[in-house]
């Protein structure tokens, strides 16, 4: 469960001085019942977070489905009962959270399904390309994906700008010496650097912005030099819903996509007052 204090920051941003419309129009002691509806098919997520926000303001919440369930258009996902002003106060923040998390979970599960259809051992992961990491990483997990690094503190990932300052082999050597417990991953863009990284002891090699043909050449070279079994292979860059199966067919371990979070399509949900 994501901490309530984190969720309340979104509400504080939306209502810095209260909900002036509801305070002006809605009687203070008016009670209401409402529902939150899915307005499209997909994987629902963010219900736990919405429940925590509503309950914080004294609204009774009944979850009709659970996070990770696949729902149809028109499905009631939450029943609400309580003070009308409080329901309206939380409404938009709750819908934004459910909409974003459900959009990520839906797309993640769709891509995981495409990948598993051709290669069950390949995992689909997100990236750090988001400012809403707690929500987005949880949504990826709900969609059966892998969150990848949560922060810069989680694992060592040597990228192009690191290598612009320190040579590849030296960077891996320093990373290995720095910690015996953290995985060392290195991003490369050529067959030559992939072989260097494997020989230098990288745990994971990320093949960035390579075509399936180029990746196949790297994999063949690693096998030829008896290095393939010593590293995990992640591919990233230029991968879309349309071509993801071309990558999944290869002998790789992980496909990572920033698009899961930086280009999310919001899932359509709405709150309707019943009376």
* Multimeric state: single chain
Largest sheet: 6 strands, parallel
The rough form would be described as elongated
Radius of gyration: 23 Å
Name the CATH superfamily assignment of the largest domain.
Aldolase class I
Identify low-pLDDT runs. Answer: none
Please, how many domains?
2
* Secondary structure tally: strands: 12
Task: Tell me the helix content.
Answer: 40-55%
Q: Report the total helices.
A: 11
Q: What's the end-to-end separation, in Å?
A: 31 Å
CATH architecture of the largest domain: Alpha-Beta Barrel
Relative strand content: 15-25%
What would the average pLDDT be, to the nearest integer?
94
Binding site for substrate: 92, 127-129, 149, 159, 187, 208, 236-238, 257-259
Function: Involved in the catabolism of quinolinic acid (QA).
Enzyme class: transferase
Subunit structure: Hexamer formed by 3 homodimers.
Overview of this protein structure:
The protein is α/β, with parallel strands linked by helices and 275 residues long. It has two domains: 4-104 and 265-274, Quinolinate phosphoribosyl transferase, N-terminal domain (Aldehyde Oxidoreductase, domain 3, Alpha-Beta Complex), CATH 3.90.1170; 110-263, Aldolase class I (TIM Barrel). The chain is built from eleven helices and twelve strands. The chain has helices spanning 4-14, 20-25, 47-56, 84-118, 133-142, 160-163, 168-178, 191-200, 212-224, 244-248, 259-262; strands at 31-38, 42-43, 60-63, 70-71, 76-83, 123-125, 156-158, 184-188, 204-208, 232-236, 254-256, 269-273. The strands form three sheets. A six-stranded parallel beta sheet has the order 6-11-10-9-8-7. Strands 3-5-1-12 form a four-stranded antiparallel beta sheet, with helices on one face. Strands 2-4 form a two-stranded antiparallel ribbon. α3 (47-56) packs antiparallel against α4. The relative contact order is 0.15. The model has no long low-confidence stretch (mean pLDDT 94).
């Amino acid at each position: 469960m994501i901490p309530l204090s984190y969720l309340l920051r979104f509400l504080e941003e939306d209502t810095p001085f209260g909900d002036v419309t509801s305070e002006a129009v809605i009687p203070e002691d008016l009670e209401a019942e409402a529902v939150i509806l899915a307005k499209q098919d997909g994987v629902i997520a963010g219900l736990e977070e919405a429940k925590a926000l509503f309950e914080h303001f004294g609204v009774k919440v009944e979850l009709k489905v659970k996070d990770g369930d696949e729902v149809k258009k028109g499905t009631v996902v939450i029943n609400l009962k309580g003070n009308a002003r409080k329901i309206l106060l939380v409404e938009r923040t709750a819908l934004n959270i459910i909409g974003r998390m459900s959009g990520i979970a839906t797309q993640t599960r769709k891509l995981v399904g495409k990948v598993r259809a051709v290669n069950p051992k390949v995992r689909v992961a997100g990236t750090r390309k988001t400012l809403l990491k707690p929500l987005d990483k949880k949504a990826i997990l709900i969609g059966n994906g892998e969150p990848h690094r949560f922060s810069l503190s989680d694992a060592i990932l040597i990228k192009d700008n690191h290598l612009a300052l320190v040579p590849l082999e030296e960077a891996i050597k320093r990373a290995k010496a720095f910690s015996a417990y953290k995985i060392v991953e290195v991003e490369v863009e050529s067959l030559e650097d992939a072989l260097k990284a494997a020989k230098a002891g990288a745990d994971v090699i990320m093949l960035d912005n390579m075509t399936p043909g180029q990746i196949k050449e790297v994999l063949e070279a690693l096998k030829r030099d008896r290095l393939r079994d010593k590293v995990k292979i992640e591919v990233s860059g230029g991968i879309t819903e349309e071509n993801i199966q071309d990558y999944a067919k290869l002998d790789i371990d992980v496909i990572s996509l920033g698009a899961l979070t930086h280009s999310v399509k919001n899932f359509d949900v709405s709150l309707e007052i019943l009376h």
